[in-house]
Design a protein that fits this description.
By secondary structure, the chain is of the alpha+beta class. It has helices at 36-40, 65-69; strands at residues 22-26, 46-49, 52-55, 75-79. The protein is 12% helix and 22% strand. It is globular and about 30 Å long.
Length: 82
Amino acid sequence: MGAIIDEPGSSVRYKTGSWRVQRPVINSEKCTKCFICAKYCPDGAINPTKDGPVVDYDYCKGCGICANECPMKAIEMVPEVK
């Protein structure tokens, strides 16, 4: 039986573990703080702050949706380094 998702974003209760293959890295020079990345993150792992979006890698699954949706292409998916 898999995880039960009560509502969108509620999967943040479950840490990713060690299986992520890629991680998003935000280029703060390109980022306009529109926070579209946070809106599209299926796990709520991107937190909007006054300084811009911050990825909580404990919960990021490395799906790349944030990088795909960023209108400024300020998010790059890079290989996970163990």
